[in-house]
Amino acid sequence: MRRPTLVLADNDPDVLDLLVTDLGLEGYDVVAAVQSGAAAVTACVRHRPDVLVVDYRMPPGQDGLETAEQVHISATVDAIILYTNYRSPELAADARRFGARVVVKGPLQSLREALADATASDRREEAKL
Predict the structure, then answer these.
(1) CB 4 within 8 A of CB 50
(2) Contact indicator for 46, 75 with CB cutoff of 8 Å
(3) CA–CA separation, 108 and 53 (whole Å)
(4) Closest CA to 58 of 41, 73, 77, 46
(5) Mind listing the pLDDT tens digit for each residue in 84-124?
């Protein structure tokens, strides 16, 4: 069975390093780790990952919600996780419009669970083949 593929986007290089290491150890194939929304869109077009994990605030440039919208419209990713410190019902509602799920930064277990949920349907489809 193939490993689920991820594109990670966060403007903080330390967060990116942590996510690449942790999620790689969890069995995910991180095909790109980038520091801007524009680079995330480009990476999704190039790699067509199973999941985009994108930070909400990534100054300067477009934020994670704008990135989610572009990726959603271009249909270059199966699932989007907006990984953020910001909590608001408005942000969650906006994210859902673009097929994204909001996961609050903190213990990585929440992100791992969201990724497991996001990739579970892909694994079920592969099992049918």
Answers:
(1) yes
(2) no
(3) 13
(4) 41
(5) 998 899 999 999 999 899 999 988 999 999 999 999 865 54
CATH 3.40.50.720 assigned to 5-128? no
89 by DSSP, 3-state: which? Answer: helix
d(CA 110, CA 37): 22
Ranges of each domain in the chain: 5-128
Q: 1-34 burial by CB neighbour count: b if 16+ within 10 A, else e? A: eeebbbbbbbbeeebbeebbeebeeeebebbbbb
Which residues neighbour 4 within 8 Å (Cβ) at sequence distance 6 or greater? 27, 28, 29, 50, 51, 115, 119, 122, 123
* Token code pair at residue 99: 């097929």
